[in-house]
Amino acid sequence: MTSPSAQLDELRTRPTAALVRAAVAGGAASALALVLGRPELVLVGLPLLLWALMALARRIARGEERTVVDPVRRVNRRSIEEGGSVALSVRSAPGTLVAATLPRIPRAALAPRHGALGGDGAVRLHVTSHRWGRLRVGPVHVLVADALGAYRAQRTLPPADVQVVPASTVLDAPVSVPTPIGVSGVHLSRRRGDGTALSEVRAFRPGDRLHRINWRVTSRTGELHTNATFTEQDTDVLVVTDTLADVGPAPWAAPDAPSSLDMTVRATSAIARHYLAAGDRVSLFDIGHLIGPVAPGSGPRQLRVLTTALSRAGRDDGAGRPARRLHTVRPGTLTAVCSPLLSRDAIAQIGVLVAHGADVIVVDTLPPSVGDASVLAGRPLRVDGQVSDRFWPEAWAMRRMQRERTVRELREAGVPVTAWEGPSSLAPVLLSLSVARTAPRRRRS
Questions:
Q1: What are the residue boundaries of the DUF58 domain, all occurrences included (predicted)?
Q2: 223 plus 367 within the same structural domain
């Protein structure tokens, strides 16, 4: 899909310094040859003068004495996924040379790396994004020249904004949920009703549907029998994101190591994509202010709405603003809380969700490099004979130890906590919830 072009004001080409030098040097050498009677000077200035006259004659012959250049840039896509590429093309008048360069873009790669040069009035660059969010391509510095390089014009084209949505990660996890809600869907209910999963074959009763009669059993027993089935239900899935703070990776981590906000956005996108593909209703609530709330919905359109909301999140948009609170939730809603578990407001919100009867799963999005105690081994406490005042690793190691108490209390309260490590992170938790749903329970007297 080609986006609307961004056309600039008209720009006239002007003589280059090379053309002026060639004309001046060629004319001066020819004049000196005549004045001094030195014919060898003609051999020095004649090539330069001929090149200048050829450029001028070519311009007049083509009617380009009033050449107007209208550089136009086009972006082939306005929305891409992480790791995807967008092509930026710049076009000018046919038969001209075009050079285009871009400033360095954070978390993105440019090919060719230092810009591109193309003939016939067209040039093309490719930008590959390595991070979700808004990708600003440009401003684009364009230089347009004729085939001989005698006339040129320069222009800085405005930047183009490209939306980078989180990568389409598919969870390696079952789609079963602890408490299905609704009357139609893919989740097997314990209630008998209309569905495709066979429950039992029983004697026909008044009110049973005729198309469910089991004719094999009926012909063998001589009495009408029908197939009883379990109902198939959908459910509500709520994803709660904690964007109150964006915790960056440790300084010794890899250059492309994700921050807590990166892990939260990618985990949210994967969870939403997983359950929307199963036909469930998915909604989004942000405790912070970086991602706007998304109402419940299902289908491909809801996935586009969610990924668009995630890609528009900024790192500093909600700084210093109070946390949002979700006061009510439908009992039985499968709730995934993506949080680094550092804020008291986020931990309190988990307690509110559990108290309202939601099936809560906590996805830990604290970068693994933060608080890594292995880097403390052999770390000197003195630098140049003085006590080091940079105790960042020690402070985060202590903070992670304090956070382990919160994780232990959540697990003791029946809330599973799993670290986000990719598409297979939630598989053990969802399997354990499915097993717990069908496990025998002690009867209270």
A1: 200-310
A2: no
